[in-house]
Design a protein that fits this description.
Elements lengths: L6 E4 L6 E2 L1 H14 L7 H5 L6 H8 L5 H17 L4 E2 L3 H10 L3 E6 L3 H11 L7 E4 L10 H10 L6 E5 L2 H10 L2 E5 L6 H5 L5 E3 L5 H7 L5
Parallel strand pairs: 1-4, 1-6, 4-5, 6-7, 7-8
Antiparallel strand pairs: 2-3
Helix pairs in contact: 1-4, 3-4
């Protein structure tokens, strides 16, 4: 992997924000609202990281657009009525460090734009990122389009880009886009699943990223 990394793209949920419980609760609420059979926490956790429409197709395959729309609206109702989630401890400091070192920062998330705007405002991170992309604006992970669009927006190549995420969807997206990838074990997918995609490293949390980057020669 080239040491010429200049652009670091983060997943949001499970990587920077500890939002697993909130997402699982909202998915369960949506399933109940639509009169579907209850699903296990394991089942609904597995779709975290996908766009909402893709999550619906995974949880309840074979449904039409009207059903997908009803599910998405039910989820958004629960999401915006919930208390919200918090950043993982140290996430803000990691972003501060990387910005001070001159890296461009991005977000590639399964959230819709409205949801991302909300959490960026709540956390005070709106101005931290040079480019962001949401699942309702482009093709959802693990398709590479989201990451390719971000790289194009900031004028960076794949060899200059590092994707940081907690799911297989993040790792596969980065692989297909040709970017470097760092896995974190703070989210829903196990180290075993993440390691299948041969990340450069699998960290316990995003707080370990600056030290690893320095040791790996990515910080000049």
């Amino acid at each position: 992997m080239s040491s010429d990394i200049q652009f670091i793209v983060f997943d949001w949920d499970g990587t920077l924000m500890d939002s697993e419980a909130q997402i699982v609760s909202c998915l369960h609420g949506s399933i109940a609202d639509l009169g579907l059979a209850p699903m296990s926490d394991h089942t609904v956790r597995n779709v975290i990281g996908l766009g909402l429409r893709e999550a619906v197709d995974t949880l309840v395959p074979g449904r039409d657009d009207e059903f997908r729309h009803a599910f998405v609206e039910a989820y958004r109702k629960h999401w915006f009525a919930s208390d919200g989630s918090s950043l993982f401890a140290g996430s803000r400091e990691v972003l501060d460090t990387l910005r001070a070192q001159g890296f461009l920062l991005g977000i590639a998330t399964g959230k819709a734009r409205r949801g991302l705007i909300r959490v960026l405002e709540q956390t005070g991170l709106t101005d931290y990122f040079d480019a962001t992309r949401c699942a309702d604006e482009t093709v959802s992970k693990p398709h590479p389009q989201m990451l390719l669009e971000l790289m194009d927006e900031v004028g960076m190549s794949a060899r200059q880009t590092l994707m940081v995420g907690d799911t297989e969807y993040d790792m596969e997206m980065a692989t297909r886009a040709g970017a470097g990838k760092v896995a974190v074990r703070s989210g829903v997918h196990s180290e075993e699943r993440l390691s299948r995609h041969a990340p450069l490293v699998c960290l316990d949390a995003v707080t370990e990223l600056p030290a690893w980057m320095s040791a790996a020669g990515f910080v000049k």
